[in-house]
Amino acid sequence: MIPHMVLRHIISLVVFVGLLLFAAGSGETGVAVPTQGGRAPAPSNSPKAPPTPNGTTAPRAVVVANTGGEGVSIRRTTSDADKIKPWPDGALMLVIGDERQVEGRAWQNVQDPDGNIGSIPTEYLAVPSPTPAPSPTPDLSRYKPELLASSGLKSYGFVTVEGQVKNVRGASLRNVESLVQWYTNSGQFVKSDSALIEYNPILAGQTSPFTVISTDNPAMTKYSVSFKELIGGQIPTLDSRKR
User: Which of 43, 49, 72, 178 would you call most buried, defined as having the most Cβ atoms within 10 angstroms of its Cβ?
Assistant: First the structure.
């Protein structure tokens, strides 16, 4: 028979080993780092954005220029033997990458309108000029007469200015005078004269001749033409001689 003291030691040892095994089987193997709210962050399933490349040049447009009308060829390399296609001045290219030096000459990688990618000497590329905005169409509603043409002539001590004027309003105009003002070559005012236009009234859409005669002054070299009412002020006039 096993002594009573030894039996107690054996039972205590079995209980101790059992407790160790239970603790090892039920314990966590990792420790979660709590967030500010006290909870561990949930795993994210969002894809990470790819890294942005550094040192790249944003695509920009250039045009072929400075070729003297001969054009320039896009090339696979910088060799004359690797020409792909010639392009005339004004052809639009898309810059790809940075400029590089080859044997003391600057070259630029570009893509041509056909989609070919190659090199062109930088001296034959230029920034395209901005397209000018179209000229606004004049608002004819604010005008009554339209000055179509005029010419001046000096003869025998007189100066004669004659021309044509059109009624661009939707109603007849009465007692319309042509007003001619004379200036020196430096722009100094000399004198003015006026006369009724030939047609009175001038009907809507009708074109009338006009003539204004003045005595000559040798200093008079420039003139302006406008129109006014016989009794009243000047009439807004559309000057089409400059078109």
Answer: 178
